[in-house]
Prior knowledge:
By secondary structure, the chain is α/β, with parallel strands linked by helices. It has 3 domains: 7-86, Orthogonal Bundle (Arc Repressor Mutant, subunit A); 88-166 and 270-301, D-Maltodextrin-Binding Protein, domain 2, CATH 3.40.190; 169-263, D-Maltodextrin-Binding Protein, domain 2. It has 10 helices and 12 strands. The protein has a 5-stranded mixed beta sheet. Helix 5 (106-120) links the parallel strand 3 (95-102) and strand 4 (124-131). The termini are far apart. GO terms for molecular function: DNA binding; DNA-binding transcription factor activity. This is LysR family transcriptional regulator, hydrogen peroxide-inducible genes activator. Residues 5-62 form the HTH lysR-type domain.
Amino acid sequence: MRTPVTLRQLEFLVALDDSRHFGRAAEAIHVTQSTLSAGLKELETTLGATLAERDRRHVAMTPLGAALAVRARSILRDVEGLVEQAATESDPLAGMLRLGAASTIGPYVFPALVGGLGARFPRLRLRLQEGLSDDLRAGLRDGGLDAAIVALPYDMGDAETRALIDDGYLLACPKDHPLANRDEIDGGDLTDRPLLLLERGHCLQRHALSAFGDEALRQDAAYEATSLPTLAAMVAARAGVTLLPEIAVRAGVAEGHDLALIPIRGAHPRRIALAWRRGAARSAAFEALASACAEILRAGQRP
């Protein structure tokens, strides 16, 4: 009788496929390299096939190994979902929840959410991850994330979304800039002023350029930033002007820089929303999570 394949062996296979390195794979799942290697060898013996080709420096998955790793991920997700469904029958917001957020949102909402959600759902354990919106959408689709905080409008495929807050913009400019002493500005004040913005791939870059609908704004092609703190620093260095999201300003992204922050009239805000897989077993829990997140973040918007 053939020895059965174990879930632990499938976890070893997925870890190796993810890292293509025995040491990093072992570290990722908190086992020794020898344990991982032995477990994979046992799996290969059980299946009667080679799943990975090894030498001293490299690991290459065989076609069968790569294909089985895809199936193993699905099996492990199903098992995890089974365990979570049982554990959350009496308390839907208990246990581990993998929550992602866009990198222009996460640093400015995670601190409030961790404290606020912890007080409301003491049995909830959050595993937080930041990334680009494309990566978050893929994480939801592939099961790497349970839910994600994203900025709309953005095509989230068939994911469910619930609005949390609207996030407007402030113009950030040096204090000696011609617009610095204005009480507020509108889109017309920006049409001939190229904006310092994030690099392409960030939703905020697209949202900022479309903040006034048909009144197109222009990005300064000479520079693309990788983060909002970098943008604030470049404006302070008189490299140009930018639009900063209100949640980032409230969280202190402009602190330490000699900047003027000017309200903008008529700009379309981006909508911060919680997204999750349509038909997820914990959909009712995500609805409750969205309500709690909205309450926490709206409280942070009040003066």
